[in-house]
Amino acid sequence: xxxxxxxxxxxxxxxxxxxxxxxxxxxxxxxxxxxxxxxxxxxxxxxxxxxxxxxxxxxxxxxxxxxxxxxxxxxxxxxxxxxxxxxxxxxxxxxxxxxxxxxxxxxxxxxxxxxxxxxxxxxxxxxxxxxxxxxxxxxxxxxxxxxxxxxxxxxxxxxxxxxxxxxxxxxxxxxxxxxxxxxxxxxxxxxxxxxxxxxxxxxxxxxxxxxxxxxxxxxxxxxxxxxxxxxxxxxxxxxxxxxxxxxxxxxxxxxxxxxxxx
Length: 262
Description:
Elements: E1 3-7, E2 10-15, E3 18-23, H1 35-46, E4 66-71, H2 75-83, E5 89-95, H3 104-116, E6 121-126, H4 149-153, E7 160-164, E8 174-175, E9 179-180, H5 187-198, E10 202-204, H6 212-222, H7 244-252
Parallel strand pairs: 4-5, 4-7, 5-6, 7-10
Antiparallel strand pairs: 1-2, 2-3, 3-6, 8-9
């Protein structure tokens, strides 16, 4: 069984494997959050290990009026932000536990968006990426859409009718980035969007027909190429130069790349 509780701004999910938290905006209230959203959050967080979470659940939440974007501050999610409507709610998930990964580059870009471009970006801290460690896996998102759990939980508070992620063609219409597949007929597409829609949240994939290189071109034309940075291992304004994200971005921008990196 799973139980949700709120202590001040901190939201807790107590479940079979432990307790996990989110630090929510000041005026957010658990009592004003539709049960469908809590059930949806449980599903995207625990489905790989706890089947049947949504079985027999009766959905009733009505859609809001604004789209939401799970923003990573990387190339694809930045491109998604740039082509989405002006009223899009942008929210960033930050790890709230000791980790080798850094949020310096993301916070640098978010500060730029807030003060130079007057773009509101909500940051929600959470330790839900630790759920995987209870099943012998490394820290990370339980499922593809666990990256948007903070938006699911804030959907009533933010009046959302949809949730977006920066999924490019390399992960949608192309299997492993190289082989065509009929995306609407894939297991992924038939599993996630229908249930989200029942909870009053469409899944929108703004860049699903754009390549990663195409997303970078969108970002470049807006002048954000030096700000949108996916690297989570370097300090603000820098890159580690060795991860696959650095290799991809730096090579496309004509910057030096480390060919000895695995």
